């Protein structure tokens, strides 16, 4: 809203250092970069190839020199660790988990057809699955002096990224300490994605991976981890990534009144054929994915064949393509 | 299907010993007794009065003499406890939890309007809330030698009731051992309901209460608790209380292919006014309940005003009436 010319030096494009991307990605926003794989590519394999994994950046991609990278971990009572990348790799056992990440806005383009919703117009591809490798957040927190028995009261683990806005404010988010300490929840400080180092768009050299939880909490380019009695003060924790009643709009919304989204609900979509596609007569293969947030299981996928007023239901026609922790799969 | 006369002696009504019931209950089945409170009474108070609490019996109500009652608890390796009622009360700290129980068939009468479903035709009242008091199942299992760290693999805790069918087979059900041992899940061996001893219809003298889980696992008139590598072999665990795809019917159903229902999904219903009721012009108070299975929270209740093709959404019109662990509440 300020029409004055930017001061000299600020004219440099802060996104000029962003990495190259795969040309098949469908771009919803270039700066910051937000893109998803075409639906058909999503169900070509159970694990999404790194270069096709949906990308949800809020800010320019930071350029991190791995040799000088340090992760700060703040425990209780002023105790803190500073870990180099090799210390993170060597001091803590490497743990691997297959987990699906999903953006809270996945399928927003369909929601907007019912009622307009603010945000990026994602199709059905803002969800992807990888095999992640890294240190358990639990192990790192315990090394920083966090006690396993957290007692009563809700504590949180706040993350900050190395990605910053024009004022120097980083991206940030938090999860409940209870989830962070749960061995079963398998929260990682990941440095590997499908057996390779993290791509720059996915948080090189270290990102958080919180299985079953909205992608916004899996902070990329991780700079700090801090235990706190409060949730992250970040804009994205406080004033974004929350759900409201349909009667709320941008004039009446009270972000303080709603809880921050953590676990997402069950999700399923058809990737092939696409809506409106002409299909041959006779047998048709339909593909899609299903995922249940919060570490719960998907028990089955059912489908309805519609047309000219009649509808049939089928369950046994679906073939499972594979299921991972986190907990989803693809079917056809 | 056997038209022969029953043998002498079998003509006695096995339900003759059932207790008297409150006349306001709406009876779906008399033998076994299955009944629910009228919707209007359900939302008159946050805790449902004992005599109005929905009743879901599968068999005749057993007559238990409290002085000779013994609960058998089978731990691992042949170790077992036999507890009298006073031992259960005195050896273990009394724990209280406000929890809502719901029958899996709640609102089946509405489902059947879409597509017929087999089972009792419950309206919206097969759900009720009480303050339960008893021993934690966790404490009793630990006393029976069950170790807190259950390691890998799914173990179960099987319950049997003192209610038996004509062949002497008791009602039975099971829950995962992990839930049974979780301090947070607050599973009780309850001997109190809203500050009084359990009524006969609700399991006198001892019943299981599993907050957040389908009522069928909260076994009444509890006779035995056993840790097992398998789920309960009971009919009601194996061949009932499971969910299927709409294409499945009684000719094609394969109970072995579906998991036993444990946590139920979110539920909400309007208790006043009733469908089709004439209401006065002007302001109208609408009442109802909301409940989320599995110990998750209900974040909000939203309502829509319909009529003559237009629909408005309102959130702020709904007023919260109270929420308890388990986790539900009533609103108006
Ligand atoms: Mo997101
Ligand atoms: Mo039930």
Strand order of the largest sheet of chain A: 5-4-13-8-9
Spans where pLDDT lies below 50 across 5 or more residues of chain A: 1-6, 307-327
Structural class of chain A: mainly beta
Quickly count the helices of chain A: 6
Which molecules are bound in this entry?
Answer: molybdenum atom
Seen as an oligomer or otherwise, the chain set is: homodimer
| Estimated helix fraction of chain A | 10-25%
Content of β-strand of chain A: 25-35%
Gyration radius of chain A, in Å: 21 Å
Q: Tell me, briefly, the overall form of chain A.
A: globular
Beta-strand segment tally of chain A: 19
Major beta sheet of chain A, specifics?
5 strands, mixed
Task: Measure the end-to-end span of chain A.
Answer: 49 Å
What would the average pLDDT of chain A be, to the nearest integer? 87
Order of helices and strands of chain A: EEHEEEHEHEHEEHEEEEHEEEEEE
Largest interface pair: A-B, 17 and 17 residues
């Amino acid at each position: 809203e300020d029409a004055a010319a930017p001061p000299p030096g600020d004219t440099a494009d802060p996104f000029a250092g962003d990495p190259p991307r795969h040309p098949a990605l469908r771009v919803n926003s270039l700066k910051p970069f937000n893109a998803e794989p075409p639906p058909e590519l999503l169900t070509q394999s159970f694990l999404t190839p790194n270069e096709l994994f949906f990308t949800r950046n809020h800010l320019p991609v930071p350029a991190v020199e791995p040799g000088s990278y340090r992760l700060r971990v703040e425990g209780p009572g002023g105790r803190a660790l500073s870990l180099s990348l090799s210390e993170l790799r060597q001091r803590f056992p490497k743990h691997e988990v297959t987990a699906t990440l999903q953006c809270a806005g996945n399928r927003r383009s369909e929601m907007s057809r019912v009622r307009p919703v603010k945000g990026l117009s994602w199709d059905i591809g803002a969800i992807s699955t990888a095999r992640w490798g890294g240190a358990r957040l639990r192990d790192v927190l315990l090394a920083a002096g966090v006690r396993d028995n957290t007692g009563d009261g809700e504590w949180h683990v706040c993350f900050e990224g190395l990605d910053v806005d024009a004022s120097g404010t980083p991206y940030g988010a938090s999860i409940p300490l209870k989830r962070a300490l749960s061995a079963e929840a398998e929260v990682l400080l990941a440095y590997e994605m499908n057996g390779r180092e993290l791509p720059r768009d996915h948080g090189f050299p270290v990102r958080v991976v919180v299985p079953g939880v909205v992608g916004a909490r899996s902070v990329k380019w991780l700079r700090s981890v801090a235990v706190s009695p409060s949730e992250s003060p970040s804009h994205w924790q406080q004033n974004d990534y929350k759900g409201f009643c349909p009667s709320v709009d941008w004039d009446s919304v009270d972000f303080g009144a709603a809880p921050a989204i953590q676990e997402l609900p069950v999700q399923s979509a058809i990737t092939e054929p696409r809506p409106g596609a002409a299909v041959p007569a006779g047998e048709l293969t339909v593909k899609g994915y299903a995922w249940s947030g919060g570490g719960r299981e998907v028990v089955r996928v059912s489908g309805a064949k519609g047309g000219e007023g009649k509808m049939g239901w089928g369950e046994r026609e679906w073939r499972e393509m594979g299921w991972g922790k986190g907990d989803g799969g693809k079917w056809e």
